Amino acid sequence: MQEAQFISLLWLIGILAEAMTGALAAGRKQMDLFGVVIIGCATAIGGGTLRDILLGNYPIIWVENVHYLIAIAFASLLTVIIAPLMRYLSKLFLAIDALGLAVFSIIGAQKTLALGFSPVVAVVMGVVTGVFGGVIRDILCNQVPLIFRKELYAIISLMTASLYIGLSYLGVTEWVNLIMCLSFGFSFRMLALKYKWSMPTFDYQAEIDTHGH
Amino acid sequence: MQEAQFISLLWLIGILAEAMTGALAAGRKQMDLFGVVIIGCATAIGGGTLRDILLGNYPIIWVENVHYLIAIAFASLLTVIIAPLMRYLSKLFLAIDALGLAVFSIIGAQKTLALGFSPVVAVVMGVVTGVFGGVIRDILCNQVPLIFRKELYAIISLMTASLYIGLSYLGVTEWVNLIMCLSFGFSFRMLALKYKWSMPTFDYQAEIDTHGH
Amino acid sequence: MQEAQFISLLWLIGILAEAMTGALAAGRKQMDLFGVVIIGCATAIGGGTLRDILLGNYPIIWVENVHYLIAIAFASLLTVIIAPLMRYLSKLFLAIDALGLAVFSIIGAQKTLALGFSPVVAVVMGVVTGVFGGVIRDILCNQVPLIFRKELYAIISLMTASLYIGLSYLGVTEWVNLIMCLSFGFSFRMLALKYKWSMPTFDYQAEIDTHGH
C-alpha cells in the first residue's frame, strides 16, 4: 500500500465516523431523517468544503466524487438504526474521532501545500479541515460550537498540521512523517480526553460582574 | 412563451414570495428594517448562492443581475407595510412556497447539469437550491432549521429534482417534463401540509434518558 | 503618504480593533483561547472573506498575506491579557469601530469596482465588508446578529459606500473623497450611538398576539 492510499483509507474511515457522530447530534435535537443526513454530511465534509471554498480550489472533492457523499448519507442513516448499540461503542468512536482529527489535519495541510500555498496557510487550512466540520454541525444544531469550550481539540489539530509540515521540510520520509504525526495527534487527543486537559478559558462576563457593571 | 421564460417567470414569483416569508420571520424576531432586508434576501437567494459557491460557478446570478437583489429588497420592505394583510393570504403564500420549492429544485438541477456535472450532483444541488435559503434564514434568526423537523419538504425537493433529471434522460420533452415535475412537487407538498405528513424523527436524547445516562 | 497607504493603515487599525471586540464577545460566552482566536479572526476579516467568496475573487487577502491573520490572532490573545483595562477604553473602541465601519465599507466598494462590477454591486459588497464580520461573530456565538436589532449600523455602511461611489463618479479627487466619506461614516455612527438612533423595527409576533393567533 502507498502512503496516499493509506491516508485515503484513514480519511474514509474518518468521514464515515464523523457522519455517525453528526447523526447522533441531530438525534439529540430530535431532527427528522433529512436533518440527520444533512448534519451527518456537514460534520463529515464541512471542514474540507470550507477549506476548498476559502482556497478557491474547485471542484470540491464530493462534487467530483459524489459517491463519498452517498456513503456519508448512508452512514448517517445507518446510525439511526444502530443507535441503541452506539452507547457501547462510545469509546471506539472517541478513538476514531481522535484519529480522524489527526488525519483531517494532515490532509488539509498536504492539499494546501500541494496547491502552492505557504506553510502557515497550510497549518491554518489543516485546522479548518480538522475542526470546522464540528463547528458547522453546531451552528446547524443552534448551539455554541463545542470545540470553543471543551477539552483540547483544535490546538491538537494545529500542532499536528505544524508537525507534519515541519517534518516534511526537514526531509523526513512521507511514511515516517505520517506515522509520527498520526501517533502524536491521536495520543495527545486521547490523553486530553482522559485527563480532561483543556485550554484556559476567557470569561469576560464574570469580570464585569465582579466590578458591578 | 418558451420553456426557459416560463420557468424564469415562476422563479421570479418564487424568490419574491420567499423574500416575503423571510421578512415575516425577521418580524417574528423583532428585527429592524435592515435585518428584514437581509433575511428576505437570504431566504430568497441563499440556496442558489450556496449552490453556485459549492460549484465554483461565478459570477453568481444576483451579482451579474443585481436588479434581482433590488426587487427582493423591495419585496421584503413591502412585507412590513402589508403585514396586517398577510394573515388573510397565508394559504396563498403556502401555495406559492410549494410551487417555489418545485421550481427552485428543478432550476438547481437544470443549472448543475448544464455545467456538466453528474446527475447525482444535480439532484444534490437541486435540494441545496430548493431548501437552503430557509436553512440560512433560520441560522440568521438563531433557531434550529425548520426543515429538519417539520412536514415533508426537503425530500420533496429531492424527489422533484430526481424526477426532472430522470424524465430528461428518458427524452421527455422539456415542456411535458416541467409540467409533470411542477405538478408532482406542488401537489406532494400541499398534501404533506394538509395531512401533516412528516419524516420519521430520530430522537437520541430520549433513548439515553430511558437508559438513565 | 499615498491614498492607498492611508486607507490600508486605517484598515489595519480597523481589523485589529475588530479582532479585540470579537475576543471580548468570545469572553462573554466563556470560550477557550482557541475560540477567542477564531471569533477574533471571524469578526475582523469575516466580512471581507465573504465578499471575496461571493465575487469569486481569489486568492482571499489573508490567504495571500497570511501575516494579517497572525496579527489578528495576536490581537485577539492580547485582549485576554488586557481585558481588565478594556472597560476604561470602551469609548476609544466604539470610536475605532465607527471609523472601521466607514473604512471597511469604502474598501469593499473600492475593491468591487476595481474588479469591474457595477456600482450597485459595489454598494452591496461595501455593506457585506462593513457589517458581516459582526454577523458571522454572532452566528458563531449563537445569538441573533446584533446589527439586525441595534443602533444604526448597516445603513451607515450602505450610505458611506454609496457616497464614496457617487463622489468617484462625479470625479472628486480620491483624497477628498476618502476624507469626506470617512468623516461622514464616522460622525453619523457616533451620533447614532450618542442619541440612540435606530431603524424602525418590524414586530410581526406582537401583531399576531394582538389578534389572538
TrEMBL record, chains A, B, C:
Which residues does the UniProt record annotate as the domain Glycine transporter? 10-83, 95-167
Q: What is its main location?
A: membrane
The annotated topology with respect to the bilayer is: Multi-pass membrane protein
The yes or no answer to whether the keyword Cell wall biogenesis/degradation is present is no
Record flagged with keyword Cytoplasm: no
The regions listed as transmembrane in this protein's record are 6-26, 33-54, 66-85, 92-110, 116-140, 152-169, 175-192
User: Pfam families per the record?
Assistant: Gly_transporter
| InterPro entries, per database record | Gly_transporter
Q: Where in the cell is it found?
A: Cell membrane
UniProt keyword terms in alphabetical order: Cell membrane, Membrane, Transmembrane, Transmembrane helix
Q: Which family does it belong to?
A: Belongs to the UPF0126 family.
PANTHER family (alphabetical): INNER MEMBRANE PROTEIN, UPF0126 INNER MEMBRANE PROTEIN YADS-RELATED
What protein is this chain from? Answer: Trimeric intracellular cation channel family protein
